Amino acid sequence: MIPSIATVCVSGTLQEKLEAIAAAGFTAVEIFEIDLIAFPGSPAEVKRICGDLGLAIVTCQPFRDFEGMPDGRRQRVFDRAERKFDLLQELGSDLLFVCSNTSPEALSGIGRLAADFTELGERAGRRGLKVGYEALAWGRHVFDYRDAWEIVRRANRPEVGIVLDSFHVLSRRLDLSTIGTIPREKIAMVQMADAPLLQMDYLSWSRHWRCLPGQGELDLSGFMRALVATGYDGVLSLEIFNDRFRAGSARSVALDGHRSLIWLLDETARTIGQPIPGAVPMPAPGPVEAVEFIEFAVSEVERPGFERLLRTLGFARTGRHRSKDVDLWQQHDIRIVLNSEDDGFAHSYQITHGTSVCALALRVPDAQAATARAEALLDVPHAGAVGPGELDIPAVRGLGGSLIYFIDRASALGRWSEVDFEATGESAAGVGLTGVDHVSQSMQYEEMLTWLLFYSSLFDTRKAPSQAVLDPGGVVQSQVIESGLDGQTGHGLRLILNGSQSHRTLSARFVTDFFGSGVQHIAFATNDIVDTVQKLVANGLAMLPIPENYYDDLEARSELAPADIAVMKALNILYDADAGGSFRQAYTQTLDGGLFLEIVQRDGYAGYGAPNAGIRLAAQARLARPMTVPAPNRG
Ligand SMILES: O=C(O)c1ccc(O)c(O)c1
Ligand SMILES: [Mg+2]
């Protein structure tokens, strides 16, 4: 199949859109009619620009309100079609894309509609052109692809085929089996879009909430299975109407688009167990077994303070890097790398963002395979400086220019801590922290879907529906992504992506103050939160104060013993429970740079304490300095 994208998916002027689309590696494009009409040059000029960029124009769509018009209007409709044929020929495109009639004037009657397409096909044929017919989910009479197919079948012209648009088919939950019965030469083209499952009218859902394959919840895999059964190998074109994409970066949305199609074809080939024409060969997605280490970029000046914090948290310095100004700190299964080099990646990162997480190392079954998969998915590889005898740990660029390292236990990479670090012999009793429970990353609202796709295409993941969390400064959208939680090979990965449209939420303020997106919060696991928090407090760590009202309410609504609640209250521990078990969590106060830490005790519980998030955010807002500075210009 040939990847393509509609200009409506990305922001900018037509010229900017086309450049972004070509830069993302596409060779085919659908021009949305509005983009052409708003363009100040001729269609021939658009053809020339596309030609220079190596883009074939699949179609210029849509052609609206064509079929079933009453006799008095019918001639006019064909005149319009001829004008559109002229336009397509000027553009060097050969497909007239008709979407089903939404006009209140439109008449029904399958014979009448088919006759209109027979005539349109004859007219197209005379010019060497083709016609495709798409059923809009909100069409006046035709809103089901099976009816569109019946009309195309009865029109019985070699020039006339059906357009299948995954959104219109899947949003209406139509039975997919008819797709497999359509002869491949009768499929004029295919449009792909995903979407979150929402309760709203089809038109609003389609015009604002579509998203790229893999970012939503529609059964794209079922749709693709049915499509592959037809033998179709033509254009697969993204058509995404999405408010965030219209406000986002054209280049990054176009690149995400290409990535999403590469992912979709790979995923489909895997589920049906046979190769698909046009699919890029790549290793299968694997689970993330654990967060192997978290790397902080810390300046020489801030380093002593950061080291004191690590000791307070119960960490010991267990290794010194053999050639670099880098230390390894450890507590049980948590490894923290402190990088204070005065050049290289971490240094640049520190200069931009201050003390912060510059890399996450993820343990996977096969680091080489993960790297190859990342490359196939157009992720950006990163190569750092490597000293003699040191390991060259494969990495790709992640959120906000930070890095994701791939480590495995099967290769020499598994011995990174011994190869690259000299043991200090130090050890610490710790405070009972056992591993990394989860990591949250804050980002611009517009880039949340980018990073959702990044993680979910690269690894074998499970994503939860996006949730709205209330912050005193506005609403924060929160997206959970999980991998490798079967417990067989480590803690797995739990990630939370946060973004908000308000500038006043904690998450948005982090992005502003931090000069970009990054890790805002790390949650460490303990088996005994009471003991751990007592030790932390004894070490002098300030925990986030939780109001008394919370504990009064907890007493009223839970079965917990008052003595248990009293202990939680004394230590500012929050509580939640689900069908699987209970959850206790406590937060540190926000550290310099906006990072904060969480301690969690998970006893069979699967979530993240969502009911407590509002309480926590209010507590954090009370402690935060008032926001007076406007957002810096990051141009
Ligand atoms: O929203 C619309 O009008 C519209 C137009 C063209 C399409 O291909 C489509 O799927 C929707
Ligand atoms: Mg469409």
From TrEMBL:
Catalytic activity entry: 3-dehydroshikimate = 3,4-dihydroxybenzoate + H2O
GO molecular function, one term: metal ion binding
Family matches, as Pfam families: AP_endonuc_2, Glyoxalase_5
VOC domain residues: 290-409, 435-602
Residues the record lists as binding a divalent metal cation: E134, D165, Q191, E239
Cell division is among the record's keywords: no
Pathway info: Aromatic compound metabolism; 3,4-dihydroxybenzoate biosynthesis
Cofactor(s) annotated in UniProt: a divalent metal cation
Binding site for Mg(2+): H438, H521, E598
EC class (word): lyase
Record EC number: 4.2.1.118
Keyword Lyase: yes
Keywords associated with the record: Dioxygenase, Lyase, Metal-binding, Oxidoreductase, Pyruvate
Example of a GO biological process term: 3,4-dihydroxybenzoate biosynthetic process
Role according to the record: Catalyzes the conversion of 3-dehydroshikimate to protocatechuate (3,4-dihydroxybenzoate), a common intermediate of quinate and shikimate degradation pathways.
Family the entry assigns: Belongs to the bacterial two-domain DSD family.
Name the record gives this protein: 3-dehydroshikimate dehydratase
Species of provenance: Chelatococcus asaccharovorans
Lineage: Bacteria, Pseudomonadati, Pseudomonadota, Alphaproteobacteria, Hyphomicrobiales
